[in-house]
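WARN no homologs supplied; continuing
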Amino acid sequence: MNPETHGQHADESDAEIDLLLEPWQYPAELTTPLNAEMLAAKVLDSLRPTRLSLNALLVRLEQLCRGAALAAESRSILMGSLLSDRLELLSPIPVHVECDGRQHIASSKDLGVFGVGIDEESALDDLRLEIVEFYYDLKDEPLGEHLRQRYVYLSSVVREKK
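OK structure emitted
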């Protein structure tokens, strides 16, 4: 968008609105309540494109700010320990950590499990517990193909402590 052209259009719209608002531009019969209502509607109609474009701009700006905030609070890490007395990690698990503004979420795409907390560390602790529970939930159960693949991956990166 060319700022010079944009400014001209805004000035032209402002000039049109000023003309619409100047009462001496209209015959006396337009100043009756019924006609004044029509005049007000015409003024509002002339403002509508400006109002809509400003609203769209504000919505887009909010989206960008929200996206930037989420990107700033989103990262990928490698979890190196389950902090469990029952299972130990043989190799790190990729984890994505993000904040939605109210809570932190730590998730493992490979396992399809996640943890939630008021801060990053509590979300990671919750995820660790979920991984341990997930392992024992799947261990002795007949599994469909999808869960079996997840269990095969999980059992390749953890082992039970003795």
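The chain has a mean pLDDT of 78.
OK
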